[in-house]
Amino acid sequence: MDEIFLREYQRQFIEDVRKEFTCHKRVVGVAPCGAGKTIMTGWMIREATQRGKRSIFFVHRHELIKQTSETFNRLGIEHGIIAAGVKSQLDLPVQIASVQTLARRLKTVPAPDFLICDECHHILANTYKSIVNAYSDSYLLGVTATPQRMGGINLGDIFTSMVKSLSVDELITLGNLTDFKYFATASNINLKNVKVKFGEYVNADLAKVMSDNRIIGGIVENYLKYARGKSAICYCVNIKHSKKVAKAFNDAGIIAAHVDGETPGQKREQLVEEFRLGKIKVLCNAELFSEGFDVPNMQAVILARPTKSLTLFIQQSLRPMRPDVNDPNKVAIIIDHVQNYSRFGLPNAIHAWSLAPNPPKKHKEAPVKSCPNCGLVVPLAQETCPECGYEFVTEEEKEERLKEHTGYSFRLEREIGSSKSTGRGIVHAPKTPEDFLKIAREKKYQIGWVAFRALEHAQSYEDCVHIADICGYKRGWAYHKWKERQEKLASRTPFILHKGETIKMI
Ligand SMILES: [Zn+2]
Domain 175-379 carries which CATH code? Predict the structure, then answer.
């Protein structure tokens, strides 16, 4: 048995749950993946066992039984497993059970004192409900990262109290999750004719849209652009779509495989193992690995299945954010092909979870935007892209904003050598073509980006020629750009500030 220490927030979570159980029998504990839900619940189970109580922890996937069993072993919790094909040991006080098997054996498995439902956003499904109803006298703890269910039905029908742990950002700060970069690709996907049932897109309709060869080609192309060589899970619409995507990767020379719920256990384990070892680079599936699938060396996810389910979105997009001891500087890459960010925002958005039976809120436009130059998704208020330096706000817009604010219009003359202030002290902004070329080489941007960025700082025709030389363009290009620039300048107001001046009113 390994020595396992709880972190302060984990202790707090356990304490909060314990407190709630003094006046509630059914509590839901909310913690993002990465918070250590299995360790926290395992800890509670161990304490219950020490007080002579019986516990059942139930999960709904084969992989999760194995992972939970491993964690319980590390905690020194002797346990039986209730699952098809496994010999039961019902005399042991702790059981890890598969939902399906437990639901079938309710008559033979005695009621526990403490019942724990993993991924409890499923709890309104019939198999789950049959377990909860059969053990109605037990203390019930549900754990989940997303305490809501599709179609706006909430968990308040089952639970009477909710305990919340840390947010995704807090877990990133603590190092429980890695930082991430979220890229969204320009979407040519049209979901207009995709029907919605029970709050989610109809799969058959989605499959038709997403199986377009150009869209699948784009998935491979963007993997190469944003996550080349990284281990990635690709979430697809259905088995057929997933197989097609895997084939497209293999055709492009990137080793990929498809796995689904029907893949025989041994074969599935073998493929997952090859993925862990990095032999398979891209593992395509349809929802199979959304929940509790721990592969620390997973570095990227590809979202190729549009969803309206916030739960599914969070589970899939947080999946690569497991820290990797072999890669302490890991930054997870999320590639969104399906505009999920426009429905939900970024994976670290704060959500106001509640057990109240309110009607579902309509998703408002998410407060994020995607950089038109590199695709990085950033908060709406961001003025400069942290990835490529793209300025979202033009000088004209900045001026407009100020005008709205002050009623005055003014323009600052952009000085060579001006510096930008950031939260972490002053840094000099890149301004010469050489500066931008260096960035482009480091970040593998195209030469067009260098020209685009450097031109913003060009003060003369000579500057434009210099940029053309650096970028390998002809002199004619420099002349054309300089003329374009002068015309643009001429169309502006004549109130350009000179050095030393501050504000000029219109
Ligand atoms: Zn950018």
Answer: 3.40.50.300
